[in-house]
Amino acid sequence: MVICSPSSESSSATSGRAWIIQALVAGAAVAVAVGAHAAVYFKWFRKGRSRVVGIIPARFASSRFEGKPLVQILGKPMIQRTWERAKLASTLDHIVVATDDERIAECCRGFGADVIMTAESCRNGTERCNEALLKLGKHYDIVVNIQGDEPLLEPDIIDGIVRALQGAPDAVFSTAVTSLKPEDGLDPNRVKCVVDNHGYAIYFSRGLIPYNKSGKVNPEFPYLLHLGIQSFDSKFLRIYPELPPTPLQLEEDLEQLKVLENGYKMKVIKVDHDAHGVDTPEDVEKIEALMRERNIS
């Protein structure tokens, strides 16, 4: 047994205190270094997703509404109204229309839009955006896929999904949802979405989700309606066409499901927006009536 003298105990205590102080100082230095590194990383990350292009994919041969981009909405082609709304977004460095149809291209050039011609073989708007991005020949970090059939889309929604993707380093995709009207609950043209507690998408469906035991729309439940606009990390967009189609994507005919089924994360923002997409010829009259009501010329 070793018995410490008072002096050795004092010396030991002093040494212990010194060691603790040194450890705290060292720990603080490490914390500062790590914090500085993290700050640099996130500054780099935000800078790394700073250049943004908006692409409006448009095709003439739609099974539900042929020639839809060129339909007149109070005297202007719908594609022009969408382009004019997108021009008001503050986060977009450039906007182009991507189409496989010369009639659409000629119309767009007529009102001043830049046009990229893409192949008829593009299976969806995302693949058309990817081809347009490659043909642009310029570097962009984020690509916003702007649906051409939302002529009343708010520019703030474009800015919102861009900033959501810039602020979510673990996501490759961002989109927006709004409140679903109960009468649209069973409409397969209105795509529904469910999200987790951190604002990431869990699933999208043409059916009602969540679906309760009664089999009826619950007017008290806050169902979410997916707005077609979405943004991609440009690096992910380049590999998206190489990913094989997935079962859920094919069954629901929703391209965003291929993103989720392959394990990628998708950030979702909730916005207050009256969705007024044009899916059928009958929707044109509804849009025009609403625009007259709001004095939109």
TrEMBL record:
Its main location: membrane. It comes from Cocos nucifera (Coconut palm). GO terms for biological process: carbohydrate derivative biosynthetic process; small molecule metabolic process. Pathway: Nucleotide-sugar biosynthesis; CMP-3-deoxy-D-manno-octulosonate biosynthesis; CMP-3-deoxy-D-manno-octulosonate from 3-deoxy-D-manno-octulosonate and CTP: step 1/1. Its EC number is 2.7.7.38. It is found in: Membrane. GO terms for molecular function: 3-deoxy-manno-octulosonate cytidylyltransferase activity. One of its GO terms (cellular component) is membrane. Pfam families: CTP_transf_3. InterPro entries: Cytidylyl_trans, KdsB, Nucleotide-diphossugar_trans. PANTHER family: 3-DEOXY-MANNO-OCTULOSONATE CYTIDYLYLTRANSFERASE (PTHR42866), 3-DEOXY-MANNO-OCTULOSONATE CYTIDYLYLTRANSFERASE, MITOCHONDRIAL (PTHR42866:SF2). The keyword Cell cycle does not apply. Belongs to the KdsB family. This is 3-deoxy-manno-octulosonate cytidylyltransferase. The lineage of its organism: Eukaryota, Viridiplantae, Streptophyta, Embryophyta, Tracheophyta. The chain crosses the membrane at residues 20-42. The keyword Nucleotidyltransferase applies. Keywords: Membrane, Nucleotidyltransferase, Transferase, Transmembrane, Transmembrane helix. It catalyses: 3-deoxy-alpha-D-manno-oct-2-ulosonate + CTP = CMP-3-deoxy-beta-D-manno-octulosonate + diphosphate.
